Amino acid sequence: MSVVAIAAAAVGASEAALRLILGQLLGYPLMLLYRQKIASQQTTVQHLYFFLTGLLAGWWVIGGDVKHSLYAIMTTYMILVVAGGTFTSVVVSFVFNFGYLLVGYYFTESEGYDICWTMPHCVLSLRLIGLTFDCYDGERGKRDGAETLSKDQQKSAIEETPSLLEMLSHCFFIGGYFVGPQIQMKKYREFVSPTYQESLPGSPLPYGFKRLGLGLCYMVVHVVGSMYLPADWPASDSFYNSWLLTKMVFLPIWCRFILAKYIFAWLIAEGVCVISGLSFNGVKEGGFIDWKGCANVKVGRLESSTKFGHVIESFNINTNNWVAVYVYKRLKFMGSRTISQVTTLIFLAVWHGLHSGYYLTFFNEFLTVKVEREFLAIWSRSAKVEKWLEDPQIVLACKILGWCWVFFILPHCFISFALLTYNKILPAYFSTYFFMYVLFFTWPLWKGAVKDFLGGPKKEKEEKRPPGSSNMEKIEETVEESGDIPIKEDIQEKEDTHEKEEDIQEKEDIHEKNENISMEFDLIKGHEIDPELEKDLTEDAESKEDKKDV
Predict the structure, then answer these.
(1) What's the half-sphere exposure (Cβ side, CA atoms, 13 Å) at 468?
(2) Phi, psi at residue 315, to the nearest 5°?
(3) Is the dihedral angle over the CA atoms 322, 73, 120, 91 positive or is it negative?
(4) How large is the angle between the packed helices 337-352 and 87-108, nearest 10 degrees?
(5) How far apart are alpha carbons 174 and 176 in whole angstroms?
(6) The pTM is what?
(7) 445-502 pLDDT, tens per residue?
């Protein structure tokens, strides 16, 4: 028995899990050595360093199965060499890399979470697909002009096909190989320049080690918490035999213990990227140096969430950003934001794996956000609420209630993600009397009573207030972390067409339509809507409004 296996048994973990943690932690001394000896060397030397160190770390963690990463990288390179930056290369790369991943899932998946070659490969598949999109955008921009590309595409487009060594270095970079984040080739090329480190306005080490320390704290929370409430607790006899009230109280705590595992992994990986200097994201107002370019979780926002929109925008944000740029925004040709959203969520579910729990989880997300937004639309338009929120104590009470809403409902959405298989999921939900689904599916029945209690929509003239004065803005101040991008309020969603009231039929101004667009968009991506996408959708909204007036 290996030393790692003995250590894993001593702490109650699997050998594969401990190897993954140690492999990721290996990135810290490797990045310190890089900064000291390699960063000022020629680009080729840096590429060789990142390729070889990442390859060896991958071999130590997943063994000979690291060959699957090499197969995917070399095949994608051949696709780019033969087809170049064309639409054909995008299609072939997408089919090959996504298909390779799904075949891997088919042959390796068990009834639990599998730490094997498919884990880094799911990250790699997105990176390679994104790379072919970037080459396609670069060729299109060179042929038709940069103005034909969106703002996101201009940031990532590359005109020259990368070399095989570049791709190997980019994909095996230890800060993003195992669990992400996604790193665009254009940014990576800047990073491996011999003068890049000298151009940084300060040292990334303090912030990088802070992320490491915070990640280790979450690891302790997960390890200790799992001793009392393990990951499969909702599928255990102990859970089935507990009182309903006991389940409702302990499920949120169980959920936090499970989420701590993901937060820990992302923070450790982010710290490696920060120390390398790759995560530098510019200097903000007041001279603040932003090192959050490779962040995959906003810890402050996640822990203080008062609505599920906050959870979406703060959890796995790097992957959500990738999906928004390379999938969601490229589905505009479908002509329907709803179809684009559903297609994107299905893509995310399939990318996670073949277990039914993934698909149910994303359905839960869609259902939860839909009900929440319909409630917030009523809340934000209520004159009664406007008056209530003049009292600071009521504002504080609303924040507390919002936090409780997320804290107690989130674990019901998450049960399917943790248990994965239907033979475990269904008994767990049955044991809670399908509480969440009863709550959401009966919402149309008591939605009217909520509207009657809070009061109908305010007149248009009452709603034309300066920015920052909406009801929800008043109860969500100071929630965001320092340096985070402000999130547009997404609470102006139009009422259901089945509830046509006289005030609803008055046409809304374009500002309100923009808020609706932003609200629908951040179901997929928690950041501000892309200006060009907003412009396109706004013009469409204005065109429909003109037809209505005629």
Answers:
(1) 3
(2) -120, 125
(3) positive
(4) 50
(5) 5
(6) 0.82
(7) 999 999 999 876 655 444 444 444 444 443 344 333 333 333 333 433 333 443 444 3
